[in-house]
Design goal:
The structure is a single chain. By secondary structure, this protein is mainly α. It has 14 helices and four strands. It has a two-stranded antiparallel ribbon. A two-stranded antiparallel ribbon has the order 3-4. It is globular.
């Protein structure tokens, strides 16, 4: 299956996203100090753990996750508390993990699922169906006899391939989900290993809460998996994950008081662009709400992007709206 490469295409959209992400990484490294601020690192790590677990229906709030990791007593299901403690333990061990080692992958799974499943730290022995948050079956995992070999081949491909790590990490994430090598914890392991691989490219990804963006866009996350499953290749999932990585970097620039690294117009266009990709059109009222500005300012924002050839003004019922030109 992985003798050459997993199925995916390098599109213009993917290349554009990689270029933008590389530029944003430079700006974050220059001004945000993600790797140097202990408090910021811990806050982002907690957000990462909360988000990755929330995707899998863990019931603890961000405040409860923080309390658990601060050693405070929290009234919640013991399983959910154990998931938090296990996830924090393995994320704190990332520096010692070899991202290309199947033994380290299994050991990480053992920590992630400690006390939660009988098949902890080993490949599953039975069949498994992959479901979304509504319980709909997305696909059935690889037959258990083939899962170990395919997982090892996938790790070897990531290690040996000349593709950019941004692409390889996305492909690994998707293909691990497709194989579904474990009885439980596949989603958590896919997101952990995606982060681990990205740190091989740029260490700041150890502290960048990409998982929080995935959590915010969970429906899009599952839709991208579904689309890739339907198309038989990882392209759609790669495009989604690159957009999530880019958004996490943009957020890092804004929340660390380093927004001067990007112009206001760049930040605004990024948000408008994302809104349009999801909704097709945008109105003055939606821009007002998005940026908390007056109607006149919203009009100026939309007019500027129209003048720059990014938007086209159209009629929506009795009012005006905008779409991509």
């Amino acid at each position: 299956m992985y003798n050459k490469k997993p199925p995916f295409e390098i599109t213009t959209a993917i290349l554009d996203e990689i270029t933008e992400i590389a530029e944003l990484v430079g700006q974050v490294n220059a001004v945000a100090g993600l790797t140097a601020n202990p408090m910021l690192r811990r806050t982002n790590r907690i957000r990462t753990i909360y988000s990755s677990l929330a995707i899998e229906q863990n019931t603890l709030s961000l405040e409860q996750v923080t309390a658990v990791l601060n050693g405070k007593r929290v009234i919640a299901p013991p399983k959910d508390i154990a998931e938090v403690k296990n996830a924090y333990e393995i994320y704190e061990m990332m520096d010692s993990l070899n991202p290309y080692s199947v033994d380290d992958l299994l050991n990480a799974h053992a920590v992630m699922t400690k006390g939660l499943t009988e098949e902890s730290g080993c490949f599953r022995s039975g069949p498994v169906g992959v479901v979304d948050k509504q319980g709909n079956i997305l696909h059935f995992g690889t037959l258990p006899d083939y899962a170990p070999g395919l997982t090892m081949e996938l790790l070897d491909w990531v290690k040996e391939s000349d593709f950019h790590m941004l692409i390889k990490s996305c492909v690994f994430h998707y293909e691990l989900e497709l194989i579904h090598p474990f009885a439980d914890g596949n989603g958590r392991m896919g997101r952990l290993w995606h982060t681990l691989l990205l740190t091989q490219w740029k260490p700041l990804f150890a502290w960048l809460p990409v998982e929080s963006i995935i959590h915010d866009r969970q429906d899009e996350y599952y839709a991208a998996i579904n689309r890739s499953n339907h198309e038989g290749e990882a392209t759609a999932f790669i495009i989604f994950m690159l957009s999530a990585i880019k958004e996490a970097l943009m957020e890092a620039i804004q929340t660390t008081g380093a927004a001067e690294a990007l112009t206001t117009d760049e930040l605004r266009w990024y948000k408008v662009e994302r809104f349009l990709k999801k909704n097709g059109t945008i109105t003055n009222a939606e821009v007002r709400q998005m940026f908390q500005v007056s109607s006149a300012t919203a009009n100026r924002i939309l007019a500027r992007f129209t003048d720059e050839g990014k938007l086209q003004k159209i009629r929506i019922g009795r009012s005006w709206g905008y779409r991509f030109l």
